[in-house]
Design a protein that fits this description.
6-stranded parallel β-sheet, Rossmann fold, Elongation Factor Tu (Ef-tu), domain 3, 360 residues, alpha/beta
Length: 360
């Protein structure tokens, strides 16, 4: 399929627009997080908070997820560039994206119309907007908040922004600056692991809970809520808001699955995959050898003994199967161990939210 710089509609899908955009630069905006700046075609129109599907053009490598990913636009419609911010992981897609040179292009596609209830700012200015986000989930909120401030929309906005450390928080300094200059926007940044930071933190600490929300928002049932982050955070906040009596139509959520701050966990998972691959190869080899011997010698399996070579091959096959199972269990153990700390903290947070109900 021929690609060109001009905008064109996808012939197979209605209300969708696609284009190729060239990389202009990239910069680190937090530990393990980078912003990629692309040119914005003059005809490109979008709303703050919208996402696109980005596709690599003729990539030199790929993985099971393919050559496309969905990313929210971090810049605003008023800005001259398209910015995409993301956690960097060791995947084929992000390796190639990270190695791109200025001037090289990717293909992006976007819906021309944002569906009702999607992750874009609501129109009713009398209804406050409350953003509850964690980590890289800040991207759509950052775009929506900047867009509203640049357009001088008359609405109150609150941002509850949770990170482990200040070093892990994309756009934290920019958001602090926006809050200091705009009375209609209030930033409530909270750090869950301040003891692990090299910086001195003087703001909120701990997970976002109902008490923290009520400390800054007078009436929890009146705003429109926007939740973005890992599925655990999204699910916990949705349960919290439901317990507080917030109508489900006033809650919009966007999950950012697959992101991790623990590089050791990623390394362990990669090692687990290599071990599983080795076990699978051994299993195939043993099977081929057995089939070959059976076909050549017509061995009688009813007369197996330690003097018969087929006995040892059978034992080798059994050991290979056991090894495969062991490595699978080790992989699961590694995944659970590295996620356990966050899940325990999250469980305590959810328990605190539902404690009044449990007592009843």
């Amino acid at each position: 399929m021929q690609h060109g710089p001009a905008m064109h509609r996808d012939a197979m899908t209605k209300k969708r627009v696609a284009c190729e955009v060239a990389l202009k630069g990239k910069e680190q905006i937090a530990e393990g997080t980078y912003a990629f700046v692309f040119e914005k075609p003059k005809e490109f129109r979008f709303l703050g908070g919208q996402h696109v599907r980005m596709t690599l053009i003729n990539p030199s490598e790929t993985d099971a997820k393919g050559n496309s990913r969905f990313f929210t636009i971090a810049s605003t419609p008023q800005e001259t560039d398209l910015v995409f911010s993301m956690r960097m992981r060791d995947t084929a897609f992000k390796r190639l994206l990270s190695s791109m040179q200025v001037g090289e292009k990717v293909r992006i596609e976007m819906l021309l119309e944002s569906p009702h209830g999607s992750f874009v700012l609501h129109e009713d200015a009398s209804k406050p907007a409350v953003f509850i986000v964690g980590g890289i989930g800040i991207v759509p909120a950052y775009s929506m908040i900047k867009d509203a401030l640049q357009r001088q929309l008359p609405r109150k906005m609150f941002l509850f922004y949770s990170n482990r450390r200040p070093e892990d928080a994309p756009y934290l300094a920019e958001l602090q600056n926006l809050a200091s200059q705009n009375p209609s926007f209030q930033l409530i940044a909270t750090i869950t692991k301040p003891e692990q930071s090299a910086q001195v933190w003087q703001g909120e600490t701990g997970f976002i809970d109902r008490a923290m929300l009520e400390k800054y928002v007078d009436d929890l049932q009146s705003p429109m809520y926007y939740i973005a982050g890992l599925p655990e955070l999204v699910n916990a906040i949705q349960a919290l808001l439901a317990e507080a009596g917030v109508h489900k139509d006033n809650v919009r959520a966007e999950e950012f699955a697959g992101f991790t701050m623990d590089h050791k966990a990623e390394t362990s998972q990669a090692r687990g995959k290599s071990h599983l691959l080795l076990a699978a190869i051994l299993l195939v080899i043993a099977g081929v050898v057995i089939v070959h011997i059976v076909g050549v010698s017509h061995v009688d399996f009813t007369r197996l003994s330690f003097r018969n070579p087929i006995t040892y091959l059978g034992i080798a096959l059994l050991l290979t199967l056991v090894t495969f199972k062991v490595f699978a269990l080790l992989k699961l153990k590694h995944m659970l161990r590295f996620k356990q700390e966050d899940k325990n903290s999250l469980a305590q947070n959810i328990l605190k939210v539902h404690k009044p109900t449990l007592r009843k």
